[in-house]
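Render this sequence as a predicted structure.
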Amino acid sequence: MTLYNEFETKTSYKYLQQVVSLMDEPICLLGGWAVYLIVNDNFQKEQGRNYLGSRDIDLGYYIHKNFNEEQLKNSTIVKSLSSIEKEGFKSLGFRYYKEIHYETGKELTSEEAKQTPTHNIFTMYIDPIVNETHPLFRKILGFSPVDELLLTPVFKDKRNRLVLKEFNRFLWIPKPEILIATKIKSIPNRTQDEKLVKDICDIYVLGWYSGESFQKIKSSLKKYLKNYDLMKLSELIKLEKNLFEKVEIALDIKAETVKTLFDNLLF
């Protein structure tokens, strides 16, 4: 099972660098690229190849629920999304996107995209994610971003984040246990098979290649997850036939090896 082709991940990585260059520090990165930046050096040393990249770019922002309208207008998320729009990213619901031609790598205008067969278009998304929703978001942004409560401890306490220097900028990355917790919480809502497989891959590599001991990560997860979250993950794994076999194809790591980590994580 091939999750993402090389053109998609290389294109996304190129735009990740571009987007990061637009942002004011600190820049908080979530999702697949956050996982990649944490694990890739160790993964590459052991496996002799890079870890899986990502197609989307997930950016994290902190908002206080008591921000007034003026504070919200001057917040990091509003400023950064304005910069993203100036770079030609278009909004679609709570996401921003660009359409890229598969063969040429050229950015397509809306009119060009209409005239291009869909199989020749790679749509790359940026997802802004906030620690909590704000009643004025829709008035100021025109939409309400996705919220992730686990961003609050990342911004509030330096012990809950890694600080990496990438692309000549300082990036804040949630600690491995927080990234794992966000993925475990999102897994029951996955409707696309490839997204589920990627989440399982990400959890495995964070547990094994992040540089932190698995037992420490497992113990720390108790702060961020309820028994219900782990129960849902366990139920889903039982229901999804051949899940670890699909992970094996994606990672080229034995299904039983991956399954053992999840057995240890859940029990």
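Summary. Residues 6-22 form the longest helix (17 residues). The CA atoms of residues 72 and 78 lie 7 Å apart.
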